[in-house]
């Protein structure tokens, strides 16, 4: 068992604890099952962060920083109004929720159930999927950045790279095999609609972002946040922005997702049947900062387990020679490029090397032009 403590352990002790946790292949769920009542030291936030008082409620939030809910059934009617609402959300808070998005509620509920069922399998069964191998298309792991982060997050994850190359369903764990294939198919359809709206919000033709392969690939992540004995000392997910074009998130009823705004952290309230949409780092880069990839986090909680399913629109592991930079049609003498072109491989490699430990769009900052 990894021992708990009050201060930061020596580096060698910390590495030993990290390796012991990793090699157990039992994840955070395994710690909870063992009956711990205090957090292992590797999960405790640094003293300076704890002293700052976070997580804490933000100041009263003006209406422009609330998370909008956009009804996609209106696309067939007043499309211009929907585009305006998408543009406003993408340019300010970087987040919105969508309803009437075409994915049946039963499929959403089945996805959440599959997340719970996989993560609550016997440890011996789950261990077969546990790996840190970068190119593995289906893998279970706790903290992708375990050895790079300042502290570990109270979360386990099953990664499933579903597109652009078809995944053999037999590679998926049985509890989520059928529904993951179904959800991925439906999410790709929804993604095309969203990228059309985002293209129009940038003043481009509807098919522009799709023509850049933004809607081509998706990776589905099943997150599991067990109840935490000392949630005030750690985080479910450290503050970060996403290294993709766009993220769709399905969250259960427990809540805990927060977005950083100029007025502090605000909640993204669970809304039955809705999906949360947020702009990724690559879309901020391509829009030349017109759209905002905003930092967000997940609080740890006494309640649980909390489960969520994230879909990252990204080519990630897929080999492509395409370079990504600010879209030329958006540039002018008054709006020069703010970023250099990059390959997805280089962008992801840099993001992963930093993990979630750096705040302030650290990955994007690395690709900014200077002077």
Automatic annotation (TrEMBL):
Signal peptide: none annotated. The keyword Metal-binding applies. SUPFAM superfamilies: Clavaminate synthase-like. InterPro entries: DIOX_N, IPNS-like_FE2OG_OXY, IPNS-like_sf, Oxoglu/Fe-dep_dioxygenase_dom. It comes from the Eukaryota. The keyword Thylakoid does not apply. This is Fe2OG dioxygenase domain-containing protein. Belongs to the iron/ascorbate-dependent oxidoreductase family. Transmembrane segments: none annotated. Pfam families: 2OG-FeII_Oxy, DIOX_N. Keywords: Iron, Metal-binding, Oxidoreductase.
């Amino acid at each position: 068992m990894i021992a708990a403590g009050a201060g930061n352990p020596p580096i060698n002790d910390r590495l030993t604890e990290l390796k012991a946790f990793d090699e157990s292949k039992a994840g955070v769920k395994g710690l909870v099952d063992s009956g711990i009542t205090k957090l292992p030291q590797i999960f405790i936030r640094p003293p300076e962060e704890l002293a700052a008082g976070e997580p804490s409620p933000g100041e009263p939030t003006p209406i422009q920083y609330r998370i909008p809910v956009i009804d996609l059934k209106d696309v067939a009617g007043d499309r211009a109004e929907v585009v305006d609402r998408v543009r406003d959300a993408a340019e300010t808070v970087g987040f919105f929720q969508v309803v009437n998005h075409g994915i049946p509620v039963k499929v959403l509920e089945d996805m959440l159930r599959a997340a719970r069922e996989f993560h609550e399998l016997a440890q011996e069964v789950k261990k077969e999927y546990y790996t840190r191998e970068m190119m593995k298309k289906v893998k279970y792991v706790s903290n992708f950045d375990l050895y790079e982060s300042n502290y570990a997050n109270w979360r386990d994850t099953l990664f499933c790279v579903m597109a652009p190359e078809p995944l053999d369903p037999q590679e998926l764990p049985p509890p989520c095999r059928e529904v993951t294939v179904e959800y991925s198919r439906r999410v790709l359809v929804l993604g095309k609609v969203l990228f059309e709206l985002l293209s129009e919000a940038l003043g481009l033709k509807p098919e522009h972002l799709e023509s850049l392969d933004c809607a081509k690939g998706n990776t589905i992540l099943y997150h599991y946040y067990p109840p935490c004995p000392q949630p005030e000392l750690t985080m479910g997910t450290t503050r970060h922005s996403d290294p993709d074009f766009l993220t769709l998130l399905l969250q259960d009823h427990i809540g805990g997702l927060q977005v950083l705004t100029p007025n502090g952290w605000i909640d993204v309230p669970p809304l039955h049947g809705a999906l949360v949409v947020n702009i990724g780092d690559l879309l901020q880069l391509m829009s030349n900062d017109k759209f905002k990839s905003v930092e967000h986090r997940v609080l740890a909680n006494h309640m649980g387990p909390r489960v969520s399913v994230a879909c990252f629109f990204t080519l990630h592991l897929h080999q492509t020679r395409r370079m990504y930079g600010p879209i030329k049609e958006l540039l002018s003498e008054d709006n020069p490029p703010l970023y250099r072109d990059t390959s997805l491989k280089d962008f992801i490699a840099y993001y992963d090397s930093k993990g979630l430990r750096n705040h302030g769009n650290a990955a994007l900052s690395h690709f900014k032009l200077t002077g």
